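Weekly structure sync, notes
Attendees: PL (lead), two postdocs, one rotation student
Agenda item 3: pending single-chain targets
PL asked that the sequence for the first pending target be pasted directly into the notes so everyone works from the same version. It is reproduced below exactly as submitted, 569 residues in total.
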Amino acid sequence: MKNFITITIGLLIGVFSTSAQNWCGTVEHQKKLYADNPELEEASEKRTAAFNRLQGENSASGVRNDDHYIVPVVFHVIHEGGDENISLTQIEDQMKILNEDFARLNADTTNTPSVFAEYAGDARIEFRLAKIDPDGNCTEGVTRTFSNLTNDTHEDVKTLIQWAPEHYFNIWVVKSISIDIDTDLDGMILGFAQFPGQLWSKPETDGVVIRHDYCGSIGTAQGVSGRTLTHEAGHWLNLIHIWGDEDCGNDQVNDTPTAKEANHGVCTNHFPWDRGCETGSGQTITQDSGEMFMNYMDYSDGYCQNMFSLGQGTRMRSAINQYRVNLTTESNLIATGTNDNYVTVDCAPIAEFKANFTYGCAGDGLNYESHSYNTPVDSISSYEWTFEGGTPSSSTEQNPSVIYNESGIFKTTLTTTNRVGSSTAIKEAYVNISPENADMPAPYFQNFESHEFPTFDNNPHLNWTTSESEDPSWQWTTEVSSPNLSPIDNNINSASIRIRSSEFNQIGEKHILITPSIDLSNTLTPVRAYFDLAHARRNESSNDNLTIHVSKDCGRTWTRRFNKDTDAL
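Predicted structure, written out during the meeting:
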């Protein structure tokens, strides 16, 4: 029986909670942009005024742009190896929904009330997954990045990867979203976009972020409509919410009736619903028609939404001409492999893998799965695995099983090959195996006085490990120490383990520190763990979170024993 424990100490940087029953965070994202960059607001207002003036002049002079636009798209899937690492099939399902909605080829067009049906139409905008990446390599239009920034993310996730926004429409798929700004929201945000007016001054954040479980309608998004991206793509092409983001506000489109406010959950059985707004200047539909709650830019249920208006289509095409013209040029379509004449070819695989556990006790087995992508699985001709410290030490199976009989920290490597080429994924210190019987008995005491900490070359059973392989955030220091702890054999008290959370800017970052296994065979219950800590708040809005978990199976499963936020610390 394994009668010992391992303790993990984790700091979650800058946790900000949202509290909104609101599924679009675009307006909040824009507020944060303005709060962080005050000069953007004035510049954006000038650009918007110029855009509206140009759009009005074109309409008055009979100028129309009915061209068909093609937009190259790339999905960046940010994941921790879980369900949020969605399949290409789910992404393709989302693309199908997006294109049907923009072309008014969706199956539910018959649900558009007759009073609005004549104003609904094809936006003449098509989205295609890129087939050539920025370096000229073959791609499926999907990248995959392992990072804990997939949790409670905002703009920070965009620092991981972005393809040039003048050539690609970037879409980041994540596990959860949080926007750091004072709002009255009290629920979860499902997606947010950046309006095109900020493209010149904030190109590094241009694009859409969307939750994996609202991307498409299959896989992890089973049972949803897949129209979150339709809504956010509308924002990305300069559409405003149907109610103008204020009571009876102006969405700057003439064939959408002025709406009182968001129509949460409204469906056709509530039609018409005139809530007292006056018909705005230039509006071609009076308020007698009710509100256009079935419009994609409202907050009605996705299964109720079924149309863009003709005016919204014109506004989006004008936004392409004004802000995103390079995206749709023939030269860019050729460069991204999205032109009509592009011939699809097989791509070389990009090796990726996951084990069902990365921690365990000596003698435990791990099951590996290849998550290689960028090419169909059936085109991969060979898998070459190597397992440092494992039995077997190598395998050619797609999804092998491995036993680790000795303790240690081990590397895993996978090379995948098809007829086009191959690639290799190497994960250093991927597997952490504790000894079958911990030889460090309780009571266990660590005062951090040894300059070797956290790695003891001559006594590896004493090693502590961190979640980072390079530039660890947890560091040994003699700059601070605790007056309440002293070593067993001397009176020196000069060191500690420290993390400078103020040096980390990514909201949602996790920094983990793990003890060696501690033998409890000869202890009486209850077992207690004591520690001393000091914490300084970064600023008034920051909220770090310190948690401590205990494992009885060498890190395979964990039970939380301590959880304190900034106020409690």
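Discussion points:
- Helices lie at 26-36, 38-60, 88-103, 114-117, 228-236, 310-323, 330-336.
- The chain has seven helices and 22 strands.
Action: rotation student to compare against the earlier draft before next sync.
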